[in-house]
């Protein structure tokens, strides 16, 4: 008798009936992750500041009770507390949390001219939001043996000028990720995804949606031959949320078409 398992076909619905919360899930990368969760058989709660965008998702997806939208500001604890409580009322359990929300464009000002309020906007929107959502979802995630994914950035590894607040917030998220993975293992796995350039213009709410204006050289500079899209992040998020990733925790996985591995001399 062989001790080896038999060959099994891949599961077409690796998140079947799992309940996943995606912050900032109504647009951009978050929407890509949300759609990937639905495609993998999961049940979904998207939380977002933009109510129009959230409602548009539900009407465009038309998946009935399998997806909910709840208004959310990840930087405000009462809002986060209410979001998690209402998600629990809706579905009765929480198996996954994707901390994706936050102000996306990093360039603001030179550090000597950066107002404290702008610094705080980035730290609160990314790092504090990731802390608050994790804090309030953890009791349910522990019960379910669930997983957290934090969306960081390839900017934790490389920078353009005048991006200190964003880079610091995202670097904090990567450190928060391995710290929490050690605290919460083996009950809850915690990983980060660091996207590179992801074109999100086509993934906005209908009134703001447009085709991305990408040049040939934008694609060509990527070792993978193209700029990224939200489903590139969604695919990894589904894997990290699934049982197939049961031996992966505390990691930061870069999804950037190879850009951070490319030697640059000019
Ligand atoms: N697009 C990229 O190239 C890229 C690259 C690396 C990392 N990221 C990160 O990915 C995540 C998503 O970025 P994106 O480009 O899809 O952004 P986006 O602006 O297209 O979408 C962000 C969504 O989050 C919501 N949101 C913003 N602040 C919020 C808050 N305080 N509470 C709740 N919802 C909030 C917005 O309303 C929006 O729907 C961000 O964390 C961003 O830093 C993006």
From TrEMBL:
<dbReference type="InterPro" id="IPR002347">
    <property type="entry name" value="SDR_fam"/>
</dbReference>
<dbReference type="Pfam" id="PF13561">
    <property type="entry name" value="adh_short_C2"/>
</dbReference>
<comment type="similarity">
    <text>Belongs to the short-chain dehydrogenases/reductases (SDR) family.</text>
</comment>
<dbReference type="GO" id="GO:0016491">
    <property type="term" value="F:oxidoreductase activity"/>
</dbReference>
<dbReference type="InterPro" id="IPR020904">
    <property type="entry name" value="Sc_DH/Rdtase_CS"/>
</dbReference>
<protein>
    <recommendedName>
        <fullName>Oxidoreductase</fullName>
    </recommendedName>
</protein>
<keyword id="KW-0560">Oxidoreductase</keyword>
<dbReference type="InterPro" id="IPR036291">
    <property type="entry name" value="NAD(P)-bd_dom_sf"/>
</dbReference>
């Amino acid at each position: 008798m062989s001790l080896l398992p038999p060959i099994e076909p891949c599961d077409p619905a690796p998140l079947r009936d799992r309940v996943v919360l995606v912050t900032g899930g109504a647009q951009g990368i978050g929407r890509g992750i949300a759609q990937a969760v639905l495609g993998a058989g999961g049940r979904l709660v998207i939380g977002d500041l933009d109510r129009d965008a959230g409602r548009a998702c539900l009407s465009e997806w038309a998946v009935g009770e399998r997806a909910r939208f709840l208004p959310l500001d990840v930087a405000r604890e009462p809002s986060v507390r209410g979001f998690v409580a209402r998600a629990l009322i809706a579905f009765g359990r929480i198996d996954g949390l994707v901390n994706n929300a936050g102000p996306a464009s990093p360039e603001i000002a030179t550090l000597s001219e950066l107002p404290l309020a702008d610094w705080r906007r980035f730290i609160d929107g990314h790092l504090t939001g990731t802390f608050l959502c994790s804090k309030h979802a953890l009791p349910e995630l522990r019960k379910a043996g669930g997983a957290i994914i934090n969306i960081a950035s390839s900017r934790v590894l490389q920078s353009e000028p005048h991006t200190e607040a964003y880079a610091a917030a995202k670097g904090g998220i990567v450190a928060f990720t391995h710290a929490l993975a050690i605290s919460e293992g083996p009950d809850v796995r915690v990983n980060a995804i660091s996207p590179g350039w992801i074109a999100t213009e086509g993934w906005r709410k209908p009134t703001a949606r447009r085709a991305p204006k990408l040049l040939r050289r934008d694609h060509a500079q990527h070792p993978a031959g193209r700029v990224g899209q939200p489903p590139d992040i969604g695919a990894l998020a589904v894997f990290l949320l699934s049982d197939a990733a049961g031996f992966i925790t505390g990691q930061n996985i870069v999804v950037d078409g190879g850009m951070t591995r490319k030697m640059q001399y000019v």
